[in-house]
Design goal:
Helix 1 packs across helix 11. The protein is about 40% helix and about 15% strand. It has one domain: Rossmann fold. By secondary structure, the chain is of the alpha/beta class. Strands 3-4-2-5-1-6-7-8 form an eight-stranded mixed sheet, with helices on both faces. Strand 3 and strand 4 form a beta hairpin.
């Protein structure tokens, strides 16, 4: 079982889109996948058509509520075969306050996932859709993860934002004790081949980070934007479209990296 945090402290970069559609593409490729929605906005949950209902987020488990369902009991099926989810809801925002005085507040999720792994996890990959802020939820995700996948929008100041993300990863390794945390790779998103800016960002990021950048580039696509409103991944909503093909290609490249 491998745990991948999909993270970027900047919002609107395609983080949830990548979490949902990479998870769906890996499931389509025959892998058992669990998507963990750790963003209180619950966009990943709604994007897969799974309603966020009270008591079905990880809030109770993370905060030690004795009446909460266990981690395993929170797992729900989705309309995608082999893809399961733990949904989010707004109560997750309360973790910041609830865990403020907890000595183990940064490693609560790591303990949960380690227990899940030991007691016979049914999945090969866990993808964590992180909130776009460096608070207790993202810190927990990075402290629990084996690697970090960073979606990076092809826009001005992309490299400056990337430097902050890489610095954040190093900081989390120090404060959480997760020294094995590594960068899974950078996924370039919202690419518009018609603009010089997108092409320049791709060139600059590849020049600075080389093989750490995935070859697959996710295009800017109206269909990708529409799919969540229908509660479907892009693979279900527009299976033959450019967005679906890109995420299938990303999944194959991701899987190849696991064996290299």
């Amino acid at each position: 079982m491998k745990i991948i945090a999909v993270a970027n402290q900047k919002g609107g970069v395609g983080k949830t889109t990548t979490s949902v559609n990479l998870a769906a593409a890996l499931a389509e490729a025959g892998r058992e996948v669990l998507l963990l929605d750790l963003d209180p906005q619950a966009n990943a949950s709604s994007a897969l058509g799974v309603e966020a209902v009270p008591g079905r987020s990880l809030f109770g488990v993370l905060t030690g509520d004795p009446g909460a369902r266990s981690f395993r009991e929170q797992i729900q099926p989705t309309s995608c075969e082999r893809l399961r989810i733990i949904t989010a809801e707004l109560d997750l925002a309360g973790c910041e306050i609830q865990l403020a005085a907890d000595a183990h507040r940064l490693t609560r999720l790591r303990q949960l996932l380690e227990n899940y792994r030991i007691t016979g996890a049914e999945v090969e990959f866990i993808l964590i859709d992180c909130p776009p802020s460096l608070g207790v939820l993202m810190t927990n995700a990075l402290a629990a993860a084996d690697s970090v996948l960073v979606p990076l929008q092809c826009e001005y100041l992309a490299l400056e934002g990337l430097a902050k993300i890489l610095e954040m990863i190093e900081r989390i390794k120090q404060v959480s004790g997760n020294n094995a945390l590594k960068l899974e790779g950078i996924v370039l998103t919202m690419y518009d081949a018609r603009t010089n800016l997108s092409q320049q960002v791709v060139s600059d990021v590849r020049q600075h980070l080389g093989s750490q950048v995935f070859e697959t580039i996710i295009p800017r696509s109206i269909r990708l934007s529409e799919a969540p409103s229908h509660g479907k991944s892009i693979l279900s909503y527009d299976s033959a479209g450019m967005g679906a093909q890109s995420y299938r290609q990303l999944a194959q490249e991701f899987l190849k990296r696991q064996t290299d």
